[in-house]
Specification:
With about 290 residues, the chain is α+β, with helices and mostly antiparallel strands. About 55% of the residues lie in helices and about 15% in strands. Helix 3 packs antiparallel against helix 6.
């Protein structure tokens, strides 16, 4: 590749970098991983070039989506490992060289609650939902990325949308019921009422802890009502009901500061996911409002 062509490709890529980072962040939930995905996308783009490509922006989005899909599938195959400590990290950056435009694009409506529920989707569901519902990519363009027909890609996005609308407080009108479920779960945990805990947990419930919580003794991942109920039964006595980025959850406070945050995903009156977050940098950036239990 001659220098002039390489420079042209680099200019084209840089013109779309902010958009590609936004796509990758919503796909992966981590700004660090999004940066890695965008860098890999540049390497693939620089090798492939633009011969026969009419829409460079669409082509770059497709490349980035494929990279993110590979990363999500790799993540799913390593679920026995603790949650990446930056998986649901806030999108603000302390790097003085961070592009302010990039920060603005990433900041719109991507909170902890949405990232938590996106992480419960399959890689194909997440890709279809993010590309179509957040970036208006047509299903006939999504289909070849996930190896499905356009109708099947539409169904993937529909399933993901139902889960997001049922679990994300920004879309969930029944936040009061969500709070009741979390409050009842904490009461059952404090009282050691194993049966009540089981009754509040979905058959497919998953508990995940970030690396900091694992260092404090938590399991990196637990699946199923028995395992999750056993982890809480007779515990959580000092956890307090709170709003976490607007969603009902719980916080363990020490000397007036949050030590561990418990983020709950609730669907149809059952807890389907619990996230234990203990990384201090992340906790400092959460919007926490303590509630009376």
């Amino acid at each position: 590749m001659d220098d002039q062509l390489a420079e042209q490709l680099a200019e084209q890529f840089e013109a779309h970098r902010t958009h590609l980072t936004a796509v990758a962040f919503r796909m992966l939930g981590s700004l660090n991983e999004a940066d890695d995905a965008v860098q890999e996308s540049w390497l693939r783009f620089s090798r492939a070039g633009t011969d026969g490509v009419d829409n460079v922006g669409g082509w770059l989005t497709t490349i980035t989506a494929r990279v993110c899909l590979d990363m999500l599938r790799s993540r799913k195959s390593r679920r026995e490992e603790p949650l990446d400590p930056h998986l649901a990290e806030p999108i603000r950056s302390d790097d003085p060289e961070t592009d302010p435009e990039q920060e603005a694009v990433l900041a719109d409506s991507v909170g902890l609650a949405l990232l938590v529920v996106l992480d419960t989707l399959t890689p194909a569901e997440r890709l279809a939902f993010v590309l179509h519902d957040m970036f208006a990519v047509p299903f006939d363009e999504i289909a070849p990325i996930v190896g499905r027909s356009p109708d099947a890609a539409r169904q993937l996005a529909s399933r993901a949308r139902r889960r997001v609308q049922g679990a994300d407080p920004a879309h969930n009108p029944d936040r009061g019921r969500h709070r009741e479920v979390v409050d009842a779960f904490l009461a059952a945990a404090r009282g050691g009422d194993f049966g009540a805990l089981l009754a509040l947990l979905d058959p497919d419930v998953v508990l995940r802890a970030d690396a900091a919580a694992v260092q404090m003794g938590a399991d990196g991942e637990l699946r199923g009502p028995l395992a999750v109920a056993s982890a809480f039964s007779g515990r959580a006595r000092v956890a307090q009901l709170a709003l976490i980025d607007g969603a009902p959850g719980a916080v363990w406070m020490v000397d007036g500061r949050p030590r561990v945050v418990f983020a709950f995903t609730v669907e149809t009156g059952k807890i389907v996911g619990v996230e234990l977050l203990a990384d201090p940098a992340r906790l400092d950036r959460l919007d926490l409002v303590m509630l009376n239990g």
